[in-house]
Specification:
It is a single chain. Helix content is 63%, strand content 0%. It has 161 residues and is an all-alpha fold. It has one domain: AhpD-like. The two termini are 30 Å apart. α5 packs across α6 (110-119). InterPro entries: AhpD-like, AhpD_core, CMD-like. Residues 15-97 form the Carboxymuconolactone decarboxylase-like domain. This is Carboxymuconolactone decarboxylase family protein.
């Protein structure tokens, strides 16, 4: 599959991409959530949405944040593993349900909402809501234009600043 379009080659899309990046920087700079968790959540959303580029980005950024190959390899099957904490499992369930809103009439279930409320304070929960929303938008853009994974270098988005 070949890329269809270079979003950064479009003046308007490039401006939007820079603002997306600035928004994610604000989130990462302000949240108390561990960077590795942020990357795991984004990786799971990228997997669900089928965005190879976003999966590439978040695997490599997770490694840079100290994540292990074992845990990265098991993100897609996290429910059937022993390597994620209860808090991480709640965040991954939240990411999945927040991504698959068309698949479930209620979106994020009350059970999942209660689980994330147990493990995360209001600011952290707000960060998760924003993170899941942002990565869903970004990964959908990548799928639409057929962005390919495999060539991302950690820290490459710093050039957008």
């Amino acid at each position: 599959m070949e890329p269809r379009f270079n979003l950064l080659g479009s003046p308007t899309a490039a401006k939007v991409a820079k603002r997306f990046h600035a928004t994610s920087l604000a989130l990462f700079a302000s949240t108390t959530l561990p960077r590795a968790l942020l990357e795991l959540v984004q990786l799971r959303v990228a997997q669900i949405n089928g965005c190879g580029y976003c999966a590439d980005v978040h695997v490599k950024e997770a490694v840079a944040a100290g994540e292990t190959p074992l845990r990265l390899g098991l993100v897609a099957t996290w429910r059937h593993t022993t390597v994620f904490s209860a808090a991480e499992r709640a965040a991954l369930a939240f990411a999945e349900e927040g991504t698959r809103v068309a698949d479930a009439a209620e979106g994020v279930s009350d059970t999942t909402w209660a689980a994330v409320r147990t493990h995360y304070d209001d600011d952290q929960l707000g960060s998760l809501v924003c993170l899941v929303s942002l990565i869903n938008a970004a990964s959908r853009m990548g799928v639409i234009v057929h962005n390919q994974g495999g060539s991302y270098q950690p820290g490459a988005f710093a050039a957008l600043d």
